[in-house]
Amino acid sequence: MATTQLPHQNFRPTSGFCVTSCQLSTALPFPPKPFKSRNLTVKTRQNLKWAVKLSLVDQSTPPKSTVDVEQLVGFLYDDLPHLFDDQGIDRTAYDERVKFRDPITKHDTISGYLFNISLLKILFKPDFQLHWVKQTGPYDITTRWTMVMKFMLLPWKPELIFTGTSVMGINPETGKFCSHVDFWDSIVNNDYFSLEGLWDVFKQLWIYKTPDLETPKYQILKRTANYEVRKYTPFVVVETNGDKLSGSTGFNDVAGYIFGKNSMTEKIPMTTPVFTQAYDAALSKVSIQVVLPAEKDISSLPDPNQETVNLRKVEGGIAAVLKFSGKPTEDIVCEKEKALRSSLIRDGLKPKTGCLLARYNDPGRTWSFTMRNEVLIWLEEFSFS
């Protein structure tokens, strides 16, 4: 999937050349000082097996360039959000001979790249979100993004999620982009053609049945091989005490509230998922929750008829999420929670105590292998790397 694809390797254009900072320092007799970007680790550099190779007719003097990289950073902030809309990106910002690469796609011209974008729009209905753009070298810019797509050709329209970075090389002679290579957070081998990348696409085609109901709003910030990091907006729940993470004790009480058992006998639309939240490390103190529609403000909601049922506003925040199918038994949920927490600690993140189990389906009406379940753990903090 070429989100905004680019090369791992560079080429010699018929006129001029394409260069990134790491290549410039080795190609020129008087290399410039290395550019330092704050708080940015571009791991992709280690994977550029066929990075730009310069072959200058005359290397006696460094090339002079008047490229305004800062202006190009601002340009990308404005231009890339149009990647998949009707306006589209500005092709005049790219050399005609430009190399695009991601782990499973490659193009060597701007026309080929634009054709690929058009194809993705038809097959996947992509939603592209640009997080940031930074200069990472004298002649390269790195972007961070999320792309969420639905594969329209399959009946269940599976959701494919990719997050990562793109390194864009600038041609010093033309001031245009001459290379663009994508690196996905979910795989290690980002070289073209990556079998790991192909498998990452294939496994996202799994059948998950998500009811056509309102869910809490969130933005996907990062997707690794093991979990997603999401930013949730605040939402309101009606809750009561439960017995265990996989249990249903208390569900009839909270469901009764939205079915009209409240001070105004008001019926409230059903949402998904049903949350069960554990507040302690032993996962023993739990509550069962039904999310209320986003249009409902907690101050205007009717009071519950039962003293054991409460309304609460969840402030949202950053959560790590592990998705799985099948019946969420207590043992399985605890196993998933431990696996997620271990992955977060390994990756240097700070998980909070407790977790949530999100169940999206009616177990009596859904085949177990199509059930969508998630374990969520709130994070103390999160920043992009």
TrEMBL record:
Q: Give the residues annotated as coiled coil.
A: none
Q: Which Pfam families match?
A: DUF2358, SOUL
- Matches recorded under InterPro entries: DUF2358 (IPR018790), Reg_factor_effector_dom_sf (IPR011256), SOUL_heme-bd (IPR006917)
What family does this chain come from, according to its entry? Belongs to the HEBP family.
Full protein name? SOUL heme-binding protein
